[in-house]
Amino acid sequence: MTASLLELNEVKKDYHIRRYGRVIRTSNALNKLTFNVEKGQIFGFLGPNGAGKTTTIKCITGILNCDNGTIYIDGKNIENNGFENKNKIGFLPEKVGLYGSLTAQETLKFYGGFYSLSDSIIEERGGELLDLLGLSHSLVKTVREYSLGMRKRLALATALLHEPEILILDEPTSGLDPRGVKALRTLLLDLNKKGLTIIFSSHILSEVQELCTDVGIINNGKMIRQGSISSIMKTVEKTAIKLSLRVNDFNEKNEKILNKNKYISILENKDLGKHRKIILKLKEDLIPWVTKKLVENGTKIFSIEPHNTTLEDVFLTETESENEA
Hints:
Helix content: 25-40%
Mean pLDDT: 88
Strand content: 25-35%
Low-confidence stretches: none
Largest sheet: 6 strands, mixed
CATH topology of the largest domain: Rossmann fold
Structural class: alpha/beta
């Protein structure tokens, strides 16, 4: 059985809005948040803006203290093992902050000092990382001469320098060109094969779907869905699928017939010239009923195509249902 490397148990974090020294409002950023990440996973951490993703990451990395609940890394409470646990984590924030006057090697030496790494280890390990990340040809340049993509790669090198057990990435592909995104994906998959556990927070759902093994969806400070990507998508597929039809003679009567069925939603009704494109959200077993009703009422169906469920569909379904609850 795979062991949990990271566990959050009913973690709570509030932000107090003050005016003239008095608390006028309290914002519940994390509301008894509970989830776990197992060793060897590439864990996609998803949620809409304001859901609590960044606050969660700050609590895990020790930047913030949670108000209640517990966070364990490798079975140890981070409150009692702060320095040890921070050594187990590598962190790449969305906004990279590096000193512009330093070169790549000087940057690694500076950050390596926080982990008490010797100069020889920093030189050896740092050289490997700079080469791996395509920065070995820019050693004489200072950071201020780097592009955003180069600065992100250097920041990733600093996060990996001390050989952490968990790598946490907050919007890592932001600002990268397609070549940079592909190179990062290849690197992360290679690191994961070597045993690195990765937490990947991103708004680019297609990237998460392609890279991650598991996913957790957070909303309003709570974990609303966690599991392997494949199992979550299968669950949503059973609930509803999207169906694309190209038809002629689709009138208001057809639309009313479909709208009367509470298990069918018309997502799109678009005139393409020769045909109309109709996209429905419905239970799969209703497809024969839909085609039968449309044909009976004079609609000519030229094509019918089920849509494969994507992580975006799952994300929208889960967060919408949570907000409606």
